[in-house]
Every structure is written in structure tokens, then in C-alpha cells.
Design goal:
The chain is built from two helices and seven strands. By secondary structure, the protein is mainly beta. The strands form two sheets. Strands 1-2-7-6 form a four-stranded antiparallel sheet, with no helix packed on it. A three-stranded antiparallel sheet has the order 3-4-5, with no helix packed on it. The longest helix is centred in the first third of the chain and has 11 residues. It holds the Pfam family HSP20.
Length: 152
Amino acid sequence: MNTIDLTPLYRSSIGFDRLASMLDNALRSDTSSGGYPPYNIEALGENRYGITIAAAGFEQDELDIQVERGVLTVRGKKANDDEERSYLYQGIAARAFERKFNLAEHVEVTDAEMRNGLLEIRLVKEIPEAMKPRSIEIKNTDKSIEHKGSAA
């Protein structure tokens, strides 16, 4: 297993502890979900993103999307079928799943839609006005020399 020493980062940076835990999680091999369900992450434009999850066989009310502390979690859980089925072959996975996506600062989920067995989640990065670059006016503070008249 590869390890990364983040000590130089910590010497000159403050508040990047979340980044370290994200890197640690990414480097750990996570085989618990086994790649199920498959998904795509795409850039839809500047500051716009999309996640598409193949959720074939799931109804809209069997899916749950939540955002908490910068983590987008998508869960799917099939409702219990009252009807018992006897499969000769079952190639369509209908098992419960949970997918987590770490979101960068200021990335917000704007919309989710279920279409043709694909769950489409749209996100946008909205940088607050206070964090956008702005120009600062430089004032001239040279004092003009005042000439006072002498009273006679």
C-alpha cells in the first residue's frame, strides 16, 4: 500500500485536515461496494457537474439522496416484494447500495431526476461574492500643504 507523507502540507497550511482524510480514504482500496451500481461523473460546463448512477430496477421512492458536511450520499433499498419469485437465473442486481461522493467547498446539489433507470444528479459550484476576486481602490493619502495667511 502506498502512503503519502502530508507533513510539509501541515507545516504551512491550516484547515486542510479534511483533505488529508479524503486522500487517505481514496488510497485505501474499498471493495465493499464491488463497483455496484456503476456511475459516471462528468463536467457539464464551468462550475457545473453531473453524476449519473445506473439504478435500474429501483423506483424513485426506493432511492434516497442526502448531503451532510460536504458528503453526498446516495442510497438505494428495494421495497420488500410480497411476491416470492423463483429465479432460474438472476442477472439483474436489485440489492441495496450506498455511494458516497466528497464535495468540494461551495459545491451544491441543485437537482436530481430519474430517467430510463438512470439517476441523474446535477451539481453546481457557486463561489460566494465575498470569496470572488475583487479590485481594491488605492487612495492617495498625500497631504496637501496648507498655506495659512498671517494675521497682521
